[in-house]
Amino acid sequence: MNNKKYVGMDVHQATISVAVRDSSGKLIMESVIETKAATILEFIRGLNGSLSVTFEEGTGTSWLYDLLKPQVTELIVCDPEERFAERRQQDKVDARKLSELLRAGMLSPVYRGEQGVRTLKELARSYLTLTKDLTRVMNRIKGLYRSWGIRCAGRDVYTASHRDDWLAKLSEAGVRRRADRLYQQLDHLRPLRQQARKELVAESHNHPACKLLCEVPWLGPIRVALVIALMQTPHRFRTKRQLWMYSGLALETRVSGEYRFAGGELQRSKKRATPRGLNENHNHDLKNVFKSAATRASTSAGPFQDFYTGLLAKSMKPSMARLTLARKIAAITLVVWKKGARFDATQLKSQAA
User: Fold this and answer.
1) CA gyration radius for the chain?
2) Facing residues of 18 across strands?
3) What CATH number does domain 4-104 carry, 3.60.15.10, 3.30.420.40, 3.30.2000.10, 3.30.1330.10?
4) In this structure, what is the dihedral angle of CA atoms 255, 256, 262, 267, given to the nearest 10 degrees?
5) Domain definitions of the chain by residue range
6) Are 352 and 324 in contact (CB under 8 A)?
7) What is the distance between the alpha carbons of residues 92 and 19, in angstroms, rounded to a whole number?
8) DSSP type of residue 317
9) What's the whole-number mean pLDDT along residues 180-184?
10) pLDDT single digits (tens) 27-46
11) What global pTM score does this model have?
């Protein structure tokens, strides 16, 4: 007798809605439990048989995954954006749907990462968060001056030596105090970001891939550390196209009427697929790494600039040439890391990535 159970969990901050199905698909239990480790473990251990559990990727995913992984036979964390085409109604409905899709084998697991890279991943998150916060404050400072008709091109507006001169341009006392508060935020964020940068680079040196990837032009210490933290392992990507998709560098296409009947036989239509831009569901931080590397490489002497210039000579638009260069850098990164090979500029192929 098959005693396997399929458990769908709709996780929230305070509660978890749970739906349990047996091997025949019959809904045998529904419950709402507290989002607390002891309560979750007590519920799971009360279910006999082989357990297959699923819940959606979210804020507390890592904690819940580590808690349940040793307790169940199969654990799948799925992407919430791909599971429900209809509008959501109730937590119980979501839990039922998850258990149903789990039993049908229609859930694809989200990659949960490598244990050895967890420290580097957290340091990368800290660095990226501080970088975004710093950029936001800098934009607010310039936005404040521009809102009062004061031109502030360049970076002098941020430097401490010119700060009094810039504050003097603000005639309103309240606006001047607001600008001073923004400068205080800037002064606090800068050393925090610098410290996070040092810790990130230092931790990346503990990984063997760091030395190899640093040989790729314009993948400096920061970009290499971010690549290792965000990709974690190259073996999760079977081909370069899978990496392009994950990095938001893959072209999405649409096709209608893919097949047709000719002479009573089913044949594939010769109608070409229509490109619709880059894929939207991707890792934005990894995309920024490859795009920024391509932008710098396209304006600086080196093998990648020759590659970029060759694309322009073939009448390719600069934006598409930079995209192609970013794809090429991503593909080279994957090959160098996966095979443990050294970067060789003489083997850089001239064709598009």
Assistant:
1) 26
2) 9, 31
3) 3.30.420.40
4) 40
5) 4-104, 116-204, 216-223+232-347
6) yes
7) 7
8) -
9) 97
10) 999 999 999 999 999 999 99
11) 0.82
